[in-house]
Amino acid sequence: MTIPSPGPFTGRTLDGLGRDLRSGRTTSAELTALALDAIAGGAELNAFVTVDAAGAAEAARRADEELAAGIDRGPLHGIPAGVKDLIMIAGMRVTMGSRHFAGHVADADAACVARLRRAGAVVVGTTTTHEFAYGPTGDRSAGGAARNPWDPSRMTGGSSAGSGAAVGAGLVPLALGTDTGGSVRIPAALCGAAGFKPAYGAIPADGVFPLSRTLDHVGVLAATASCCLLAYQALTGARLPEDPVGEVRVGWLEPGSLFPADPRVAAAARAAAGQVEGETRMAPEVLELFRETYLAIQSGETAAVHAGRLAAAPDLFDPEVLDRLRQAAELPAWRYVRALDARRELEEHAEALFGPYDVLATPTVPILAPPIGAREAEAGGERIQVRAALLGMTSPWNVLGRPALTVPAGLVDGLPVGLQLVARPGGEARLFAAARRTEAGGQG
Amino acid sequence: MTIPSPGPFTGRTLDGLGRDLRSGRTTSAELTALALDAIAGGAELNAFVTVDAAGAAEAARRADEELAAGIDRGPLHGIPAGVKDLIMIAGMRVTMGSRHFAGHVADADAACVARLRRAGAVVVGTTTTHEFAYGPTGDRSAGGAARNPWDPSRMTGGSSAGSGAAVGAGLVPLALGTDTGGSVRIPAALCGAAGFKPAYGAIPADGVFPLSRTLDHVGVLAATASCCLLAYQALTGARLPEDPVGEVRVGWLEPGSLFPADPRVAAAARAAAGQVEGETRMAPEVLELFRETYLAIQSGETAAVHAGRLAAAPDLFDPEVLDRLRQAAELPAWRYVRALDARRELEEHAEALFGPYDVLATPTVPILAPPIGAREAEAGGERIQVRAALLGMTSPWNVLGRPALTVPAGLVDGLPVGLQLVARPGGEARLFAAARRTEAGGQG
């Protein structure tokens, strides 16, 4: 799995970088300079919106001073990181990928950025987001589409498009994203990175521009599941056992029961999952209820965020985003209320679906990264909608707020495939244990 | 304040009835027979939908046996009570005042009915509700309008219309109601009874047919505030101090800042409130936010309850209810989501409005009971909508879930006026202390 143009962090783990920093083989200043150079050199990917070279250099200098003085903030100390362009960074331009906020400067750090800094990481800049995070393709943003490092004519997936591109291309070893229906996992999968959407609320969303408040999750993108785990622990204070947690039962969730899948993609993910304890399927009526519930909750909450702008300055929206927002604004309230009820019902369906398994495995995305701008594609002999396909495997786990992870699962036609692993509530230790057990998790 | 046709429980308190029961001056069987006779004799009021004479007689017999055996369930022991016709009573016909449920028999007791029975009360029957509780006038119900015992050509108010008529006419000394925007307090006030809407959730709503789940409150109607307090304590296990709880600061909330009021009604309520510590006003923009928030939450939640019936059998609804449901079904979801936000904002506005006061006093309803069927009226020289007027003083306290009480405040033109008292969260003891202090609370 070799990327055409490797970056300075391609093949590097947070663990390895941390060892190099502490052994004196490198410095945060050096890593940060590598990142800044690579970002400049990889400009065609459009992974970053705003780069704070001076601020990053200063933060790296402090990180190095602290390490030299014996102050060690842990695994993220001195690590350069990108932050999605709708997560507030004090004093920086944060645009939400929108012309509405073209000149917007955040006045305070989001909670997750404050935690990132406390953990010693070096914020190098903001990464491209699909406009207002409202789209899983990552190709509609005020600053233009992010481009897939494995083939720049293809989309990164989104909405954390630049975070996926930046980590996938090895420009930075770590990035923050947000995930409302798959927006961390989709670009991670399509760009060859790992990505973790923790349980709802595990990383607080304060200071993150909302898309859909009961579905929005803050997550992390990095090279491997183990890197994601380090970052997750650093950002939450969670401590998961690194040793086996006893038997972990993994079930293969038949992807076709969620969405028509490219058989090559399904096969690659299945191979990466390795030996599993069994297979399961989502019943069509449960799938339909997941889809309706996701759409209703997201539509109502997103339209509430943008009602003022929709009325006052609709022309500043990207036309596709505008069209979707207008549809969302028409959803009747009673459907939203029903969806809140359905959520409780879906908890029970999910319990039945998990059955004897601790972790369910699927492809993260059932298709390969489509060309930028594509809205229709083919999968499994069917004509499919690209947005629906991208979200098809991921969005149910936002409805339920369950922890979900994507890990690289090899290449098909030279493009990355992701394996998604989903846990029960509180099942993070088993989730990462399952990742270590898979073919995919064993690489990295 | 003498009603034209007094009933057997006119002028009787739960306390007095309890003394008579325990001294042997009466029995539950006798009280129940009085209630059943009065209900039959007062049929023109249409206060009751279904009467369970045999079940009530049997429950009364058991209550008497228990008392004779020294088993005393407290202040409701042996007391005949009416239950609004959308609160489930096992084995009884419960119709929601709707042709959709004309033959519906409940299979289990609602939680509040189970508590009522455990407290020893005797359920005599179901009381008329406005269809699906969706209206404060009480004059649209499958079994016809309830009629005001002070003038049967006038409405009772609703939606707990029959509970108001039954207690106001002295047919029973106690009734259960539900209050989503004022549906306990409005009919209590217009029929000359006291009515208490406890804090949200204080009496569980399980087994109550929903109108708007985050606004629905179960409450009680009885002759006086003290009777309501006895019933509330019996149904919740709450124990409030009967002695003064220190100084209780009452503020007069200028009714005109909520809705145009009949000046005679306002004056009667103000007189009943007695000496107050000061006056306050609701700002127009806060009022507007209360109105919008109430309407959005109720519309979304109510339409969610009835969406299936609206699609499948619209003609079974009363035409006015149908028209309102269809409007409610069109409310966009984003307005509901915004309303949930506004609710939090309104908490802060309410704190400012209460300011130094523990309890706010207003008229319960700003007008006298209008003729049955009336939808427009005059108040303070303005043409007003009857539904909006009825709800004008009461609905804000449902948005916030605050405890609110109405007590009789005399007559204007031979029709009852209510004084509403509203407390801060947790302020029940001060609320009832304020009621005892008022002119109104001192009577009864």
Automatic annotation (TrEMBL), chains A, B:
Keyword list, A-Z: Hydrolase
Source organism superkingdom: Bacteria
Gene Ontology molecular function, alphabetical: biuret amidohydrolase activity
Primary enzyme class: hydrolase
InterPro entries the record matches: Amidase (IPR000120), Amidase_dom (IPR023631), AS_sf (IPR036928)
Domain (Amidase) ranges: 31-431
EC number: 3.5.1.84
SUPFAM superfamilies, per the entry: Amidase signature (AS) enzymes
Gene3D superfamilies given in the database record: Amidase signature (AS) domain
Keyword Lipid metabolism appears in the UniProt entry: no
Spans annotated as Disordered: 135-161
Protein name in the entry: Biuret hydrolase
